[in-house]
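Input record, target 12 of the design panel.
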């Protein structure tokens, strides 16, 4: 009799072959068989009758705040929130204290993550004027998601606002880099708008659509000049979507669940500073443009931009209140709810949350529910109606802009490399997250110092 480490039976699989009933057998952390497994046995079995089995959700933009800001979040609590929300892997951002901009800082994060993070992970290296000329070495280190550029000031000390330094960065790198595209000079000129206000309603006026569009145009022009690839994060305007549709050969596109779900002015009326993030939540017209970008295939991935701050920090009067909100745990429930409302198909949701990340960033063995790939799965109940409650949320910051929101569709189990780390809201006994491998860095991973295992 054939045996496996894990069998998931009677699920409706959603993968490259469409949707349909099948069993999945896992052996040594990888998908070993898809089909009717009949009398096969396993050390652990899940009866997934009535549930859909998706490739593991990958969140390509989270800020877990460790080291230096652990009171808001750390690698353990952020990744715990991730797997409770059905997320199997994350890309974590470099604006920590100290910033992740040196080999030593990267090695420190990888060491902190081992057997503390619940999901698999990779860490971005932050671009600076000081490291711009050797980022090609940094981006090839095992466990690195690539290079992150902040064109507009946000949480932390990373800012590359001038074209000269941006050109140095792009001339050096070889992998696709991620970009926070807001035009710092324009925002500096308009800072008086925020300073004259005591309300977060001023936030989308200060950091206006023009500041986003100018930065996006600048980074795409520089990428084209240097023959490099950029991934423009958290797009918020219809104009950017239309512009990026004409430049898909060099630029890929991310949107967030927050910008797809919240809208101004309603969110600022209801949430105040808790709706404040960079780039800002904008009006329904801009939000409609983002949904058109999803419908037309222009948007490549949805990332949460999980960026927690404590309630006390968010309560500081605007504009001194910090920008950002938690989101990794609510990413999938919100998208499932949108899918159930008819805003996208389930196949499109899978592309935006797993296949897209694998395609853009050349993940090794992830992003596809297929034989030979890592056994990363997200098991969901498409019909479950749940309310996002505070006692379900794991982020250390202790709040969510979506608290009290009822959604249809819910993560029921999270499987990382064949290990069931969450089932029906309960976590496994211990965390065993490991660094994500990338096709572009496999040679360095195998032969270089600090190779992942």
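The sequence produced for target 12 reads:
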């Amino acid at each position: 009799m054939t045996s496996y480490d894990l069998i998931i039976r009677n699920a409706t699989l959603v993968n490259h072959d469409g949707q349909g009933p099948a069993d999945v057998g896992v052996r040594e952390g990888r998908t070993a068989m898809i089909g009717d497994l009949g009398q096969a046995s396993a050390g652990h079995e899940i009866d997934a009758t009535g549930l859909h089995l998706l490739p593991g959700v990958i969140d390509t933009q989270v800020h877990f705040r460790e080291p230096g800001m652990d009171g808001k979040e750390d690698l353990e609590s952020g990744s715990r929130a991730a797997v409770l929300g059905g997320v199997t892997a994350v890309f974590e951002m470099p604006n920590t204290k100290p910033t992740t901009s040196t080999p030593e800082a990267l090695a420190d994060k990888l060491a902190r993550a081992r057997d503390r993070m619940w999901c698999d992970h990779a860490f971005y290296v932050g671009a600076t004027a000081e490291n711009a000329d050797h980022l090609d070495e940094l981006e090839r280190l095992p466990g690195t998601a690539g290079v992150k550029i902040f064109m507009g000031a946000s949480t932390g000390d990373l800012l590359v606002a001038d074209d000269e330094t941006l050109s140095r960065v792009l001339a050096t790198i070889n992998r696709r880099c991620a970009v926070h595209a807001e035009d710092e000079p324009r925002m500096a000129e308009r800072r008086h708008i925020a300073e004259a206000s005591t309300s977060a309603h001023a936030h989308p006026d200060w950091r206006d659509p023009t500041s986003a569009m100018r930065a996006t145009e600048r980074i795409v022009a520089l990428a084209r000049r240097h023959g490099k690839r950029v991934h423009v994060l958290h797009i918020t305007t219809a104009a950017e979507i239309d512009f990026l549709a004409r430049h898909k050969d060099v630029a890929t596109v991310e949107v967030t669940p927050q910008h797809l779900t919240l809208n101004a002015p309603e969110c600022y009326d209801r949430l105040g500073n808790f709706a404040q993030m960079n780039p800002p939540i904008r009006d329904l017209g801009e939000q409609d443009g983002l949904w058109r970008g999803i419908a037309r295939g222009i948007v490549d991935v949805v990332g949460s931009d999980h960026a927690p701050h404590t309630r006390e920090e968010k309560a500081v009067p605007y504009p001194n209140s910090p920008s950002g909100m938690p989101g990794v745990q609510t990413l999938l429930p919100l998208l499932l709810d949108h899918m159930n409302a008819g805003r996208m198909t389930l196949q499109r949701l899978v592309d935006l949350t797993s296949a897209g990340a694998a395609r853009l960033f050349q993940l090794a063995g992830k992003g596809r529910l297929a034989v030979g790939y890592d056994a990363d799965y997200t098991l969901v109940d498409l019909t479950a109606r749940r309310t996002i409650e505070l006692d379900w949320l794991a982020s250390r910051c202790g709040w969510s802009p979506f608290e009290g929101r009822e959604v249809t569709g819910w993560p029921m189990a999270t499987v990382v490399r064949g290990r069931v780390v969450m089932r029906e809201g309960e976590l496994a006994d211990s965390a065993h997250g490991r660094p994500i491998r990338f096709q572009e860095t496999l040679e360095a991973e195998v032969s270089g110092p600090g190779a992942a295992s």
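The chain has 16 helices and 17 strands.
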